[in-house]
Amino acid sequence: MSKKIVIIGGVGGGMSAATRMRRLDESATITVFEKGPYASYANCGIPYALSKVIRDDAALVLHTPEYFKEVFNIDVYLNTEVVEIDRINEQVCTRTAGEAEIRRVDYDKLILSQGTDAIRPQITGVDQNHVVTLRTLSDLQAIRTLMLQRCPTDVCIIGGGYISLEAAENLRKMKFGVSIVEQGTHVLPPLDADIAQALHAELKRNGVRLFLNDTVRRIEKSYVVMARNGREIPADMVILAAGVTPKTSLAKLAGLEVGKQGVKVESHMETSDEDIYAVGDMVETKHMIQKQPCVVALGGPANRQGRLAADHIAGKPVHYRGNIGTTICQVFDLTVGLAGLSVAALRRLGQEPLWVTVHPPHHASYYPDAHPITIKTAFERGTGRILGVQAVGMAGVDKRIDVLATAMQAGMTVLDLEHLELSYAPPYGSAKDAVNMVGFVSSNLLRGDYKLVHAEDISVENLSAWQVVDVRSPDEFATGHLPHAINLPIGTLRDRVSKIDNSIPTLVYCSVGYRGYLAYRILSQRGFNVVNLDGGLKTVVEGGIKI
Amino acid sequence: MSKKIVIIGGVGGGMSAATRMRRLDESATITVFEKGPYASYANCGIPYALSKVIRDDAALVLHTPEYFKEVFNIDVYLNTEVVEIDRINEQVCTRTAGEAEIRRVDYDKLILSQGTDAIRPQITGVDQNHVVTLRTLSDLQAIRTLMLQRCPTDVCIIGGGYISLEAAENLRKMKFGVSIVEQGTHVLPPLDADIAQALHAELKRNGVRLFLNDTVRRIEKSYVVMARNGREIPADMVILAAGVTPKTSLAKLAGLEVGKQGVKVESHMETSDEDIYAVGDMVETKHMIQKQPCVVALGGPANRQGRLAADHIAGKPVHYRGNIGTTICQVFDLTVGLAGLSVAALRRLGQEPLWVTVHPPHHASYYPDAHPITIKTAFERGTGRILGVQAVGMAGVDKRIDVLATAMQAGMTVLDLEHLELSYAPPYGSAKDAVNMVGFVSSNLLRGDYKLVHAEDISVENLSAWQVVDVRSPDEFATGHLPHAINLPIGTLRDRVSKIDNSIPTLVYCSVGYRGYLAYRILSQRGFNVVNLDGGLKTVVEGGIKI
């Protein structure tokens, strides 16, 4: 007898589950109920469609219900909400928009793929019609209509996450005035503050006004009022991008186990009811680094989880390995990426990781247009297990994030990164690739060949406790240096080592960390108690650390 | 007492060893003898310097002897050849160009980093001065002089390897007529022939004349004569790019063990004499896939081996893991990359791997300028261990090669690639990244969910043994199709399945393999004995397979 598979929610995870199910089982009856008006579309492309970087919205509509019927023999019902799950009778109750009738539909296996709701902050005036979200194709159309009707000129984006930054870039392309309001210390809260500083600079360089550590108190017709000082910011359109929350109400109503955030699932995506699966942004899955359940609202995991749920229903011995939260974001001319956890996030979990910051060029430095990538890598003391990687730069960031994400998922340590044989030709990389550089510096630290101090640990006050030695050239020194620093260029250090006192703790530094490391090796072998400044002055300056 | 370290040969491996040695040991005496006129330069950049893509040759000179003295306290002697190694007395005998005197220099540890010689094919006329090589800065200067003196207009490149293709691209930028003569069936012999076809097309599209399966019989002043048919090709400059051979004569003279190609070393780069190390292009190291010693003449491994030899001398418990031969090459608007072995190379080793070919877009297909990447992945039957990856396309190739190279070095299987969480935003990738696609298709094959036939296995003759079903649209079918094919578009297949005979072996295909896979699933579940054409018609057409 043919299995009856019902899927609640189309788009990413749901349609992946549906089509995989069909490929595995020609005899199943597969039905998808989608609350919205599209079966499958690319929500990640929406900010780019707004500005017409993606020229035609139709490009975002990946497939229609007719396509799914014809090619997959899958029935997709749009504008149809599942209002109740009757677990006793294994039925769902559905209602199509504009119709009163409730239909009951049998299932043998049910897959929930309902995604998330945008969080609507409780701000006075938030319910006006010039306050919008930018997540769905319907949102996009609503914004287009609003733009035609009201001809806004200034947009305030509430929230500083990925969608916010993508929206800001595309709105600036359209010549809007753009403000971003972020309640935290920096945009993209999963990142460390120092890495986000480069994004702040890039946003400002492109005319985006940034309001950090602040919130919107009130939304008026043509401006918003800031909470901290009552300042008015022009805004005749407001985009809410303050995060998302898993749609769990239907699951809760059905008595399925729900965690702190999302629906609880086993490693093969089964919920607490063995005939009901859940996938995508609405579920809690294991984070491979923090080892705790978490919600990862990303397209890649959603797609793979949908596929995996279908595999499990078809009897395959599969299990979901968990997430490391690999993300990437274009911010004007910069790319920023993350895999695993930031140092701040690790500390919140009570961990005290080691970490290093390097600034290698994205390809051979002698080949035109080499751009530095700032890579901050956190790893476990003792083992060197990679816990988190953050990278920002103009080119080659996505490659290094993906290589390091792969290394993390393979359980590699920083010691393994030294050995990695990566592709090298001048237009693409270096004989010692940026990833190898991460490996060299991290491994030196892990093995105790090297001691460092981080930019965040130095200040005008505590610098005076060190003998500070700047080993750059006199010309570089003249452009600015740390307080109390004396200048002993690396090439002169051996000859002039008698000028400094080996009884005082010594801090050496250069521009990006390499010459500082050389100085560390020279001085430590001469009995100095010495540390190098991790990532050099560039890390201090880029990280926005005031000294 | 301070150790005396002598290094023969600067540039990549030698200078990496020298500088690492100094960082680890301030007290050592470190001396480098370099036969050529430069201590350290970027030979990989030379083709690009020729055309002034790299504007200034000085950019290629990474560091001078003065720099090494000042910063590293290393003595570098240029134009100085080591003519003999006296292992009994632990001395090297050196001779500086233009001087008669032989100096004897003591060593405690000796590191050989002599690199390779260009192979000079025995061709009549090869010793004329318009016949050059393009490997060193001196070569570059000689070519510049030749161009000024003789104003050549047509260049013939003998050999079709990486340097040949890079030279061809840069010479075309300079408006030279360019011919490439390759004795094998295709350029870049480490690749499979089908993958190289895209390069042939790109070379031709850019005006490069290709002569395959042929050699040069005779070099005249303004033309060369081809071996196969005596044809004359205009060439008033000839570049020899017919490969390299390790410089082993000094090692042989010293009685060190030399293998079939290069100097034999232990896993920590020690030669058969425990006080002599050898690194870089001149040594044989273990190939991680073929498990046999081989010479890998690449910058990355040379640098890491140099570093590792110094580590071992300093007493660190290191060992070299071996190579997988990760390479990348720009060929005009295309990039081609390889990690591990081609299918042909695996077969030559007596292996019968499984493999799949996919053509996913390099980023989200709905985002502008998405370009397909052709990825051919070979893996071990049973285990799924990845044995070789080849990729070619206009963008995103280096990223996928590096991710897959990392996966290979981590010992991942194709099953692991399904799970990889890689970065996704529209400008960078897809929710199902190209690497995941490799994983999905390979795993389906490995698990037996799927049967395929390769383009190389079909011909006009044997196609008649199959019932051939083209599941593309009628419009696509009308643009050309396989012989004997009937057209049953995928959306009609279930309804029209009675039109085909399930007692006859059936071959299904589409444009890139996906719809063919769907058809496979539909038909196999209805009792058909069916195979899908791997990679679809695109693999046939791109692979230059004539049907």
Automatic annotation (TrEMBL), chains A, B:
Taxon lineage: Eukaryota, Fungi, Dikarya, Ascomycota, Pezizomycotina
Protein name in the entry: Rhodanese domain-containing protein
Keywords annotated in UniProt: FAD, Flavoprotein, Oxidoreductase, Redox-active center
Record carries keyword Flavoprotein: yes
Family: Belongs to the class-III pyridine nucleotide-disulfide oxidoreductase family.
Domain Rhodanese stretches: 462-542
Source species: Trichoderma asperellum (strain ATCC 204424 / CBS 433.97 / NBRC 101777)
Database matches in InterPro entries: FAD-bd_OxRdtase (IPR050260), FAD/NAD-bd_sf (IPR036188), FAD/NAD-binding_dom (IPR023753), FAD/NAD-linked_Rdtase_dimer_sf (IPR016156), Pyr_nucl-diS_OxRdtase_dimer (IPR004099), Rhodanese-like_dom (IPR001763), Rhodanese-like_dom_sf (IPR036873)
GO molecular function: oxidoreductase activity
Cofactor(s) the record lists: FAD
Gene3D superfamilies, A to Z: FAD/NAD(P)-binding domain, Rhodanese-like domain
Cleavable signal peptide: none
